[in-house]
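Ticket 4471: requesting a sanity check on a complex prediction with calcium ion. Repro inputs:
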Amino acid sequence: MGSLHRVAHRGYSAVAPENTLPAFAAGVLAGATFIEFDVRTTADGVPVVIHDRTVDRTTDGAGKVWELTLDEIARLDAGSWFSSAYAGICVPKLAEVLELLRPHAGVELLLEIKPPANLEQVKFILGQVGDAGLLTRTVVQSFDPAIVRLAGEVAPDVRRGLLRDAFDTSQVEVAQELGVSFCNPSMNAVLGSPETVAALAGAGVAVMPWTANDTALWPDLVGAGVAGLITDHTGELTGWAQNVSSGASSSSA
Ligand code: G3P
Ligand code: CA
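Returned structure tokens:
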């Protein structure tokens, strides 16, 4: 097996509350080559890292992210829903996540911009990434092709990815038209259409499926030609990838 990207989905979210600084630190320690996270913008224009449209599931608050101010979001507990051990952990600002990841030169960022996001917000998000000196270590992705396009207009050199639900060979044209480096569908989509992975690879577009939590399926996904696996189980993936690599090298020795 060649080098496989190990992508910590919302950080090492099997062991720490998703999209929080402890989850990102755990992902780094567990050997992630990419940290994946989700960015939304508050009512007062500050990018924060949270998956859902509302704060309801992952904090002790309620309401839509874009209708709450940073102060209102910063007061929330984003750890207790996961475990009392994480009580008091906050929803991080994007700037805090960038600061945490910046010293880890071998770790790349898979930054998903969640809709809705307008040009000004995309510009501000990528401005913060640029200010942190992390544009070359970042892949910006979204399910919304319009956001992927905006990211390309704002930062033409940044690598971009398109997240997909539907996955067939017609995606090659879509990916080429958008100029993306990655096309990332669900795990089941990859297993159902390995020929699309090959067609995209032929066009220079890498595929990293989500959310690959069933370890029994990792060999088939790798066999389908994926460039990486996006998983909640970062540590397990690091261990598995090392075992596969060492097994391959010892059998060929
Ligand atoms: O990076 C892929 C994955 O994060 C997309 O789905 O819903 O977890 O953001 P979601
Ligand atoms: Ca995501």
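Notes from triage: The radius of gyration is 18 Å. Leaving this open until the requester confirms.
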